[in-house]
């Protein structure tokens, strides 16, 4: 499998604290990769470096072979990486449909990213570029809105949320708000989805459904998935490969079976969350 994302010796330091220390690994195209580790291990910081929230102290991030380290978060969304957050970030007072449509509007703000891609000879996004100029000139704006709505409804339909399209996002039960976050991420035409604790707050039956749904999303939308998760049953049932961090350091990599037997990993977890899995 090709590497879709490469973290090349990434270090992220906050003052005296090294949150991520020489992280050197990749995400392979089409895989479901898990990132686990105790609280404060540095997992979210890895996602923040990938998505341009932080500029790493050392190292580079490559996406499809392209150095994306200097790009801003909205540019990173534009080139095909989208994320969900640990704490749900929806527009609570907007409808479900509007939330998904708004996610597509990143295309409007892409000029700088396109300049950067052109400079690197990588402009594969001609259609979006045309849309940018059309929207500036207000040409085709209405038909474009229609297209966005159809696309949003299609995604909602696939995720079983279409019947809720005109409900306020804030009125949805927690599990469905998490699904809506995934719908928003898919609406950006992402090639790589970063999911930060997708099962947080779900009951055991919801989280088992989520495992099946994420596998289905990977196949249906042909996306690669990199996720942070504390629920070990979800991680072990879903991920094909797992990376384990502790105190900013990548301490293990392997299949679910290999990770469950890894002494360093067992030690890092001090038996806590781990005992749930081993049962
Ligand atoms: N902006 C920041 N400034 C200073 N320290 C930070 C910042 N962001 C993260 N940290 C610190 O970096 C370390 C790693 O934090 P991070 O949120 O990446 O861990 P995590 O593995 O995602 O934890 P959790 O599972 O609890 O979400 C922590 O000690 C945290 O306090």
Automatic annotation (TrEMBL):
Pfam families for this protein: ABC_tran, BCA_ABC_TP_C
Superkingdom of origin: Bacteria
InterPro entries named in the record: AAA+_ATPase, ABC_AA/LPS_Transport, ABC_transporter-like_ATP-bd, BCA_ABC_TP_C, P-loop_NTPase
Keyword Transport assigned: yes
PROSITE patterns from the UniProt entry: ABC_TRANSPORTER_2 (PS50893)
UniProtKB keywords: ATP-binding, Nucleotide-binding, Transport
Domain ABC transporter positions: 5-272
Listed GO MF terms: ATP binding; ATP hydrolysis activity; L-isoleucine transmembrane transporter activity; L-phenylalanine transmembrane transporter activity; L-valine transmembrane transporter activity
Any single GO BP term: L-valine import across plasma membrane
A GO CC term assigned to this protein in UniProt: plasma membrane
Keyword GTP-binding: no
Protein name (Swiss-Prot/TrEMBL): Leucine/isoleucine/valine transporter ATP-binding subunit
Organism: Kosmotoga arenicorallina S304
Gene: livG
């Amino acid at each position: 499998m090709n590497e879709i994302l490469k973290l090349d010796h990434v270090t992220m330091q906050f003052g005296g604290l090294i949150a991520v220390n020489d992280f050197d690994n990749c995400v392979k195209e089409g895989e479901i990769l898990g990132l686990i580790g105790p609280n404060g291990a540095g997992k979210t910081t890895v996602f923040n470096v990938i998505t341009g929230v932080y500029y790493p102290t050392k190292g580079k991030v490559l996406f499809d072979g392209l150095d994306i380290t200097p790009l801003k978060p909205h540019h990173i969304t534009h080139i095909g990486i989208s994320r969900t957050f640990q704490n749900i970030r929806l527009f609570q007072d907007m409808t479900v449909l509007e939330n998904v449509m708004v996610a597509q509007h990143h295309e409007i703000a892409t000029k700088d990213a396109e300049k950067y891609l052109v400079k690197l000879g990588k402009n594969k996004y001609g259609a979006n570029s045309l849309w940018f100029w059309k929207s500036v000139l207000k040409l085709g704006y209405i038909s474009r809105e229609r297209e966005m709505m159809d696309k949003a409804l299609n995604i909602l339909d696939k995720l079983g949320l279409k019947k809720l399209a005109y409900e306020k996002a804030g009125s949805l039960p927690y599990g469905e708000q998490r699904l809506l976050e995934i719908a928003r991420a898919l609406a950006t035409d992402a090639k790589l989805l970063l999911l930060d604790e997708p099962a947080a707050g779900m009951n055991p039956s919801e989280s088992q459904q989520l495992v099946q749904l994420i596998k289905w999303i990977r196949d249906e939308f042909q996306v690669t998935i990199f996720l942070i998760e504390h629920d070990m049953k979800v991680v072990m049932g879903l991920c094909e490969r797992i990376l384990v961090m502790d105190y900013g350091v990548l301490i293990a990599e392997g299949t679910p079976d290999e990770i469950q037997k890894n002494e360093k990993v067992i030690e890092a977890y001090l038996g806590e969350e781990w005992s749930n899995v081993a049962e």
